[in-house]
Amino acid sequence: MDLAKLTAFLAVADERNFGRAAQRLHMTPSPLSRQVAQLERELGGALFVREYHRVALTPMGEALVGPVRRILEQAGELPAIAAQARGEVRPLRVAATTWAPTALVTRFAEAVGRTGGESASGLELVEDSDDVVPGLLDGRLDLALLHLPAPDSDGGLSAVPWLRYPLAVAVRADDPLAGRESVSLAELSGRTFVESVIPPRVTNAMRRVSTMLKNARVTRTEQVQGAPGGVEISREVLLRGLATFVPHLPGSPLPSLMSPPAFATIPVEDEGFGMDVGLVWCAEQVGRRPDTARRVEEAVEALTGAPLPAGAPVT
């Protein structure tokens, strides 16, 4: 019996789905299923009832969830204990949503690095904020940069707003809007916008923005696969003359595909038209390691006390 099999069991128990559990562990379902089957043979009984599109715990499986979770939590603490005994500092384990502007993710990684002198190589990028929740709750992650509102975790997570980054309209350089200093949402009614296929959690975070668009009758959209402002989106804007919304962070040293000379970016002047991001952590897990708790607090204070000039603190 090894930790890999216990990790596989707990992932399936949490997700109640072999496919989602495999995705969470960055593996395919087949080896995950084999690990669970091997564990069942070692324990002498079934851990799950496997039905079509449904997985349920057996009584033995239910009885083992708590003990296995505690074993894995304690095993996860061993590197930190060993590092502390050697006089070393364990790097913070952090994650950020891929839907946040790169400039903000970079600022987040730099703030985390300053708390312990480590590089940002430990940063994990995730598409859906819901994928971060298990890692924060079981202690595999210490801190995350996510869109708000924070994922629902039955009160297990703490969240502090960082800033609201404004959104702008990106169009082709020869578009009638190009050259404008700003534009209102009312002026965009009737335009067709192209957007990425958005995960459910990001959709929830965009609820206020979506309401503002609906009220302004900006409702004509087409969806494509790909990241916001990515190659797929920029191709639709360039070849078909569509428009799209992109983060507006003037002064950022990071280039964008939606930059001149092929494209023009026009800030939206409507107050509050932007996305909220914040810092999320599990106080119970972080509080078990005083040094980790101190550094998480330092990173949160460093960011929330000094938001990017282009953004406004979330109120």
TrEMBL record:
Q: Which Gene3D superfamilies match?
A: Periplasmic binding protein-like II, Winged helix-like DNA-binding domain superfamily/Winged helix DNA-binding domain
User: Record's superkingdom?
Assistant: Bacteria
- What Pfam families would the database entry show? HTH_1, LysR_substrate
Please report the stretch or stretches of sequence annotated as the HTH lysR-type domain.
1-58
Say yes or no: keyword Transcription regulation present. Answer: yes
Q: Name one GO cellular component term.
A: protein-DNA complex
* Molecular function, one GO term: DNA binding
Q: Identify its protein family.
A: Belongs to the LysR transcriptional regulatory family.
PANTHER family cross-referenced by the UniProt entry: HCA OPERON TRANSCRIPTIONAL ACTIVATOR HCAR (PTHR30346:SF0), TRANSCRIPTIONAL DUAL REGULATOR HCAR-RELATED (PTHR30346)
Protein name per its UniProtKB record? LysR family transcriptional regulator
Natural source organism: Streptomyces mexicanus
